[in-house]
Design a protein that fits this description.
Growth Hormone, Chain: A, 3 domains
Length: 489
């Protein structure tokens, strides 16, 4: 996806033109990150209003979230390679335009099916923004110290985008209506397109990465069939013919993917990466943390509005501790990783997740508000502290030319985790409700599952930072070196 590393080393790569203002380019690119990060959280707060306005089922609400995240997860690496091949600014501008169109159509949707389709369009646009924008940022910041500072600002903006969504979404939904949560994207997209055309320089990768159409199709088919099976099985029946066929398709796609990828010259997901214990741990932690995050946000939005009777704006205010802790801990995590390595940051994140989900395991209609607020604050600490550790683990010890791809895979695993987290949370609640449980009772098993995931994150945070794990990264470098020195057949 992001191959900027190929450009910052060689002297022959084009230098930034004198008229380029790196921090202005960073600001423009951060606007795209704000759109992508905020879009998930801002939509979650509006879900009850969308359900009422479009007469949607719980499964329909799950698809409103997952149509976006699945498209984004499936096409992140493909869009990144397109940008490296045809020009990053060009693909970035196309992404902004598509995202604008998707947002406008979402605000005009008159059925849940239409809204889901337009969310796919939004996801398509978003897939051209995040990885491409980061490549642009790395390309314009040639000074290593300034580049590190720019990436730190980028990470902090990601935290702000997660934090701003619930509060802003609640305020807009209550005062103007749920359609307004999509209107807010329109002026940002227009301004970003105009500024990109004026100030962002065009760039391409020095070495263009090959395509892997088989891997791309199999990955997309696996995610779609698995997610569809999880979301729809509570209604069709887990042992129904439809569910069995969908799970079988997902399993077949995964098997074919694992068989074909090692044989591909430039695979979508290079198996060599997984010889690195830190990288493998980063992928597992990203998927688990973001699955928990997506389920946490999805369920708490429905709980606060449909069980406790809070308005959309009150729901946004209740999430303020979550938002504030993300803003506070995101830059702190970067400094901790820089000074002490990944282990302390991941340990704090894991403990935040564990304590938060344990506080939610006895959730009821009368759970004290201070207990909820504390749980939200602890979850915000976990999410804010984990991102830098995951990214650093993913690229730790990787050859310079592969660091961008490794980071891209970690970003993809976050989106996959988000999609599956919403699917699983909704499926478990639907199954529990069908058995006569109340909404809060049906969520208890999910909170325990999240607690187990948090314990696994703590374990992986320790294992991936041992000397044994760090030594495994040297094997990856030798494998890539051997592959690059072997002539293509």
């Amino acid at each position: 996806m992001n191959h900027s590393n190929t450009e910052i080393g060689p002297k022959k790569s084009a230098a930034s033109p004198p008229h380029v203002h790196p921090y202005l380019v960073l600001t423009i690119c951060c606007a795209s990150l704000l759109l992508i990060g905020m879009d998930v959280t801002i939509v979650n707060v509006a879900l009850p209003a969308i359900q009422l306005g479009l007469h949607a089922s719980l499964a329909g609400l799950q698809w409103v979230v997952d149509a976006y995240t699945l498209t984004l997860a499936s096409l992140l690496m493909f869009s990144g390679s397109m940008a490296d091949r045809y020009g990053r600014r060009r693909v970035f501008e196309i992404g902004l335009t598509v995202f604008f169109a998707g947002s406008l159509l979402c605000s005009l949707a008159h059925s849940i099916g239409g809204l889901i389709f337009y969310r796919v369009l939004q996801g398509l646009g978003a897939s051209m923004l995040n990885p491409v924008a980061l490549s642009i940022v790395v390309n314009v910041f040639r000074n290593p110290k300034e580049r590190v500072r720019a990436i730190g600002i980028w990470g902090a903006m990601q935290g702000i985008s997660f934090a701003a969504g619930p509060v802003l979404g609640g305020a807009l939904t209550q005062t103007i209506g749920w359609r307004s949560i999509f209107w807010i994207n329109l002026p940002i997209c227009v301004a970003a397109v105009a500024l990109t055309a004026r100030f962002v320089p065009e760039s391409k990768a020095a070495r263009r990465r090959g395509f892997d159409p088989a891997g791309q199709i199999l990955a997309l088919a696996f995610l779609l069939s698995l997610t569809y099976a999880i979301i729809e099985s509570p209604h069709d029946g887990w042992t129904s013919a439809t569910s069995i066929v969908l799970f079988a398709i997902a399993a077949l796609c995964m098997i074919l993917f694992l068989v074909l990828e090692p044989r591909c010259r430039e695979p979508l997901l290079n198996p060599r990466f997984f010889h690195s214990v830190p990288f493998t741990g980063a992928i597992v932690m990203a998927a688990l943390c973001y699955a928990s995050y997506a389920g946490f946000l999805f369920l708490n939005t429905l709980y606060l509005q449909q069980v406790r009777g809070y308005s959309a704006f009150q729901t946004g205010l209740c999430t303020l501790p979550f938002a504030v802790m993300i803003i506070v801990t995101s830059p702190l995590s970067g400094r901790m990783v820089g000074h002490y390595g990944e282990r302390p940051s991941i340990a704090v994140a894991g403990m935040g997740f564990v304590l938060s989900t344990l506080l939610l395991t006895p959730l009821s209609t009368e759970t004290p508000l201070p207990q909820l607020m504390l749980a939200y604050a602890l979850f915000g600490i976990g999410l804010g502290m984990i991102n830098t550790g995951i990214t650093d683990n993913a690229v730790s010890g990787m050859p310079l030319a592969q660091a961008g791809v490794a980071s891209a895979i970690a970003s993809t695993s976050r989106q996959v985790g988000t999609a599956l987290g919403v699917a699983l949370a909704g499926a478990i609640v639907s199954t529990g409700r069908a058995r006569g449980m109340s909404f809060t009772q049906a969520t208890h098993s999910i909170w325990w599952m999240m607690t187990a995931c948090s314990v696994i994150v703590l374990l992986f945070g320790w294992v991936t930072t041992t000397g044994w794990a760090q030594r495994s990264t040297s094997k990856v470098a030798s494998l890539f070196h051997s592959a690059e020195s072997t002539p293509a057949k």
